[in-house]
Amino acid sequence: MAKEVRARNLALLTEEEMEERRPILLAGIQQYNGGYFFEAHETWEELWLPSPWPMRRFLQGMIQLAAAFVHLARHEYPGTIRLLDRAVEKLEAFSPQYLGIDAARLASEARRARDELRALGRQRFREWDQSRIPRIHLVEGGEEQGAPGG
């Protein structure tokens, strides 16, 4: 019984099921671009947990990006930098685009934000212009382009 429950709870969504949940991805993008980083983080986690690889890694990068800006709003410098480092690493692997998202641009802008914040340092990072927070841009077609191993 325990083995059956574990297998059922580890089941990943099929591509068709993920496509049915695309509105969740888009809702998270709208939240993120609207500055609702915590909400975007929570929305994407709903997709992340059951998503298959490599989609799971991409969503984790998006979640970490949103979480970085939650930390920034809370004036938590180490968490901001750590999460931006992790997000950039994951998002760069999906260049140029993935799931209809301009992953190359997002990774580049996240890297720039991280580098600017790091240059300001712990004492001055609150001076950073938050209008430079990366935005997520959608592209036409090519949903799987850039997927590692795909």
Task: List descriptors.
mainly alpha, single chain, 64% helix, Hyaluronidase domain-like
Structure description:
The radius of gyration is 16 Å and the shape is elongated. It is mainly alpha-helical and 150 residues long. The chain contains seven helices and no strands. It has helices at 2-10, 15-20, 22-33, 37-48, 55-73, 77-92, 103-124. The chain has one domain (2-132): Hyaluronidase domain-like, CATH 1.10.3450.10.
> What is the fold named in CATH at topology level?
Hyaluronidase domain-like
CATH architecture label:
Orthogonal Bundle
- Tell me the number of structural domains: 1
Number of helices: 7
Beta content comes to under 5%
Mean pLDDT: 90
Major beta sheet, specifics? none
> Distance between termini?
35 Å
Please identify the oligomeric state.
Answer: single chain
Label the overall shape.
elongated
Structural class: mainly alpha
Helical content (DSSP H or I, runs of 4+): 55-70%
Q: How many β-strand runs? A: 0
The CATH superfamily is known as TTHA0068-like
Secondary-structure element pattern, one letter each: HHHHHHH
What's a quick, concise take on this entry?
This protein has 150 residues and is an all-alpha fold. The protein is built from seven helices and no strands.
Give the topology, please.
Elements: H1 2-10, H2 15-20, H3 22-33, H4 37-48, H5 55-73, H6 77-92, H7 103-124
Helix pairs in contact: 3-4, 4-5, 5-6, 6-7
